[in-house]
Every structure is written in structure tokens, then in C-alpha cells.
């Protein structure tokens, strides 16, 4: 096993602990990702070359510095560069949150909340494909069930590598899930319809008929149109992918019931907003609605008590 260590310099302010915790849904482990003992770990798939990335903080929120350790059966400069780029994307280290903070400090709803989360950057999925499969998996089920199903999917069909007696799994490749087929996913407890959606998308991505990564170059409206043309993908899924898969600062999943509940706690004396009300109110936060969404969910998951404005 070859190992190497490099450093990454995030754009400040950058709170590594908070960002890594958000990436794992404040649960320590979520799917193939873990954040335990101050170290974020993920098994990367670099063009079918597996590489374990372990990241820890050497700096502070205002002067951030990360140490990235890579472990793989074979490491060359190309693989190291790809791993650095992928980790930087996953942990959002290049984002500049300062313009969002300027907006938040003058907003009565956000001003009390944002300082406690200073330095939180928006984590991303490694690929659009991964985000899409995770989103479909989570449709119309509780977050607890979604977490169990995601872990089952990754541990059953994701490529694995053992290091120091520990087995790590990366997210399944499109070909892995296409080969698993509907029956393979049904055996994990997936519904027939979800299994069909996932297998159909995976087969098209594996064959090259569906080029999801090209969405990075498309405007938001075109991304939503292209995604909602895919069987099994609705507006809610497409809006979340703008934030988590494509890094769009103004993505806003106004149809998300949890988001409507949070906004109701913050703005409407505890009564959830209707999706159209949430969308109308959100325009004052543009072009940073993706950050607002992330910060509201981070506050909720970390136990913040929302005062009603």
C-alpha cells in the first residue's frame, strides 16, 4: 500500500469540523463517508483506481489548513492530483462565503443564526450520478430509512478496499448497479419502482447514453429541465442536485417539506410555510439561497432553537 500526504488550503473562513459533520449529516458515519476523531474519510474511485482519503485540520477557521493523506495500491502524480481535486470539491474548500455573510448580517431571520455556523462550506457529492441515485433513494421515506438503504447499497455494490484491517467502500459505479438489476435492489428492500428508476439511469450512464457530468456547464433552468426529463426525477430532486451535485449558490428546493417546516419555525410562529410561500420569501436571499438552505439544515441538525421573526 502506497501512502502520501499533501496539504490543502481552503478559502477562509472555513470550519472543517462543521463542514465534515454536515457532509455526514451530523451522524459520524453516513454511507461510505465518515467523520470520527476529527478525521473525515472517504474511499475515492479515481477512474477505477481506489484511494482512501483521510482529511484532518491543521489550522483554524480564519487560517484554515487541511492535511490530506492518501492510501492506494498505486499512487502516481496523476492520481494524487485527481484525489486532491475531488476532496477539494467534496469538502467545498474553494467557496467564498463572505458575500453570503454580508447579506445575512442585514437579514433579521439569518443574522442571529449564521454567526454560530461561521465557516460552514457546502459539501458536495463526488459526482452528479451519485447525487441523483441518493436523491431517488431518499424519495418519500424517512431520513433514518434512507440512511440504512444508502449504507446497504454502498456496502453491497460499491467497490471495496481493505486497509489496516478495515474495509472501506466507495459509491457504486453505474455499471455496478446496472448489473445488479431490479431484482438485486429489490433484495435490499428497495421498491420495484425505485429499483427500476435506479437501474435505468445507471444503465444509461454506463453506456454513455446519459451524460450527467455535462450538467456542470449548463445554466440552472436547463439543468432542471434536463433532470426532470429523466424518469423518476421530479422538481424536488432536481433542485437539491443544483446545490449538492453542482455547487449552485442559488439552488432552492422550495418543495422540501422539512425546509418549509424550518422556515415556518423561523418566520411564521411555528406554522410551516407552503412551498409557494417559501419560494416567494426566498427571493430576498438570492443569489445565495443554496447557502441559506444549507445553513438552515445545519442549524436544525445541530440543535439550534429557531426564534420566530
Note the topology:
Layout: E1 2-8, H1 16-23, E2 29-30, E3 33-36, E4 39-46, E5 49-57, E6 66-72, H2 77-90, H3 98-104, H4 128-137, H5 143-157, E7 160-163, E8 166-169, H6 174-186, H7 192-207, H8 220-228, H9 235-244, H10 257-267, H11 275-282, H12 289-301
Antiparallel strand pairs: 1-6, 2-3, 3-4, 4-5, 5-6, 7-8
Helix pairs in contact: 4-7, 4-9, 6-7, 8-9
So how many helices? 12
Taking all Cα atoms into account, the compactness measure Rg is: 19 Å
CATH superfamily of the largest domain: DNA-3-methyladenine glycosylase AlkA, N-terminal domain
| CATH architectural group of the largest domain | 2-Layer Sandwich
Please explain how this structure is put together.
It is a single chain. The protein is α+β, with helices and mostly antiparallel strands. The protein folds into three domains: 2-94, DNA-3-methyladenine glycosylase AlkA, N-terminal domain (TATA-Binding Protein, 2-Layer Sandwich); 98-122 and 247-309, Endonuclease Iii, domain 2, CATH 1.10.1670.40; 128-214, Orthogonal Bundle (Endonuclease III, domain 1). Helices cover 43% and strands 15% of the residues. It has a six-stranded antiparallel β-sheet. It has a two-stranded antiparallel ribbon with strand order 7-8. Helix 4 (128-137) packs across helix 9 (235-244) and helix 8 packs across helix 9. The longest helix has 16 residues, at 192-207.
